[in-house]
Amino acid sequence: MNQRPHGHRLRLGRHSEPNRIYLITAVCYRRRRVFADFWRGRAFVASLREVENSACTLCYVVMPDHIHWLMQLAEESNLSQTVQKVKALTTMLLRDRWHGQVWQRGFHDHALRSEEDVREVARYLVANPLRAGLVSSARYYPLWDAEWL
């Protein structure tokens, strides 16, 4: 049985819709806890600021071994290229703090449907550290932000 991750298959059938809201999940290579260190987690946040012309960040949560990013894709932007740029920038910013591969190939995206409540999705994301048992309250977790909260 092949034990390789299938992240490369996540690209199949993907297309970008300008102004669409997407929930992106990207996983660290072999689920390593790259972002367990606060400053390494901040590298991902800094990368989000670098792509503000391509995507408007609505919410993010940086977990120790993966990230969730709720964003609205800008006009004339490409989803795969935007996510790839964030991942590449994060890797570049981490070169002095992490040795080795940062990301698994590919990413998961979910295009929100019109009936989905964006704020409810953001609340769900922000609660991830609680569900994982990392903190007793979201206010104690430093690696998240949401436009409304």
Q: If you had to describe this structure to a student in words, what would you say it looks like?
A:
This protein is globular. The model has no long low-confidence stretch (mean pLDDT 92). The N and C termini lie far apart (45 Å). With 149 residues, the protein is an alpha+beta fold. The longest helix has 15 residues, at 79-93. It has a five-stranded antiparallel β-sheet, sandwiched between helices. The protein has helices at residues 38-50, 79-93, 118-126, 128-131; strands spanning 21-27, 55-62, 66-73, 108-111, 144-146.
Write a short abstract of this structure.
The protein has a single domain (18-146), classed as 2-Layer Sandwich (Alpha-Beta Plaits), CATH 3.30.70.1290. It contains four helices and five strands, in the order βαββαβααβ.
Strand order of the largest sheet: 4-1-3-2-5
Bulk shape: globular
> Mind summarizing the main beta sheet?
5 strands, antiparallel
Low-confidence stretches: none
The CATH architecture classification is 2-Layer Sandwich
Count of beta strands: 5
Approximately how much helix is present in the residues? Answer: 25-40%
Our Rg estimate from Cα atoms comes to 15 Å
Beginning-to-end CA distance, first to last residue: 45 Å
- Helical region count? 4
CATH topology: Alpha-Beta Plaits
**So, the CATH homologous superfamily?**
Transposase IS200-like
The helix/strand series, from N terminus to C terminus, equals EHEEHEHHE
Q: In percent terms, what proportion of residues is strand? A: 15-25%
What is the number of domains?
Answer: 1
Protein name: REP element-mobilizing transposase RayT
InterPro entries: RAYT_transposase (IPR052715), Transposase_17 (IPR002686), Transposase_17_sf (IPR036515)
GO molecular function: sequence-specific DNA binding; transposase activity
Pfam families: Y1_Tnp
